[in-house]
Amino acid sequence: MADVRPPGGDVAVEGELAIETRGLRKTYRSVRGRRVGVEDLDLQVPVGGVHGFLGPNGSGKTTTIRMLLGLVRPDRGSATIFGHDVPRHLPDVVGRVGAIVESPTFFPAFSARANLRLLADGIEAPRERVDAVLDDVGLTGRARDRYRTYSLGMKQRLAIAATLLKDPDLLIFDEPTNGLDPAGIHEIRRTMRDLGDRGKTVLVSSHILAEVEQVADTVSIVARGRLVASGRVTDLISGQGGAAVRVVVAPDDVAIATSLLASRGLVARHEDDALVVEGADPAGVNRMLGEQGVWAREIAPRQVDLESVFLGLTQHETPGGRDHRGGRRRRRRDAEPPVEPVEPAATPAATSSGTGRADGGEEA
Length: 364
Ligand SMILES: Nc1ncnc2c1ncn2[C@@H]1O[C@H](COP(=O)(O)OP(=O)(O)OP(=O)(O)O)[C@@H](O)[C@H]1O
Description:
Blueprint: E1 17-30, E2 33-46, E3 49-54, H1 61-68, E4 76-81, E5 84-86, H2 90-93, E6 97-100, H3 112-122, H4 128-136, H5 152-164, E7 170-174, H6 182-197, E8 201-206, H7 209-215, E9 218-223, E10 226-232, H8 233-239, E11 243-248, H9 254-263, E12 268-271, E13 274-278, H10 282-291, E14 298-303, H11 306-314
Parallel strand pairs: 3-8, 3-9, 6-7, 7-8
Antiparallel strand pairs: 1-2, 1-4, 4-5, 9-10, 11-13, 11-14, 12-13
The chain binds adenosine-5'-triphosphate (ATP).
């Protein structure tokens, strides 16, 4: 996936896709009418490597994952996994998919190995896989310990091990680092990176952008159920202007510095006690300010990271009408008219090949 594209932009993806959705939409009933979970979502996840699925709370990540796994039925649109229409042809491809959508259940008094053996028998995976997957997630040394003695990070790695029993090609992890401490997050990140390096496709939804930036090859960013950007992490960052400049001037000079930069076509935004000027270089900014008698107290290049790209794309898109800084959200020009009521959807079959539960919530 080499492109960085705006919503609705042309899609130019190289190679085979592990996941593709087109015009996917899901609404839920709520007391105030209909709530949009996912809106016209076009998602493309290339085969192999780690793909981050990012978005603010309530932006539709879990809903999308549940639709892919046949746990929630879309109102409209289509989705494929390795070219198979899902949920219709999910049985044809489900053996190639492992997923963690909710915390899986293990027997607390059984060891990790005993738990995985039971699970392997249940899903008809060869028992020889048990030791292999424990090794994959770095739990071989603790394989005989009871599950209840495990740390949260170890429990989550065991959940990942469970998804690997059938040696799937695609792993789908919904917020796998939730509730983990930095060491636990690091372990999961390493496990995901290893899987990606071995040619597996890992789709991971997350809020922890620094973590995703370190582990993901490609990302899709969603806001209010829509795709707002996707592509290689490096392309997304350079597409947002690449480097920026962080400059600190005397408090009395902030307003004049801002208007000086604006007169040269540069937008300076406030960040703590500094101004951040995107798409500029320190020497140029220093010269512009100095020529007008405004002297920088500090000036340094500031590399744009995934977090600033994410905030730039989504800060006006949080639910509840307020952006991340507490301001009123802009009304979308392309906002959809109210949705007509639709008939309740039939409950889909439970199809996750991992250990996620198959309850669809308050589906419409
Ligand atoms: N079972 C449900 N019943 C009603 N509304 C739902 C249900 N599941 C999700 N929604 C709504 O759909 C929208 C998208 O939610 P979803 O959980 O998919 O987002 P998310 O990006 O995964 O959020 P988070 O990161 O907080 O888990 C939200 O407005 C949410 O309240």
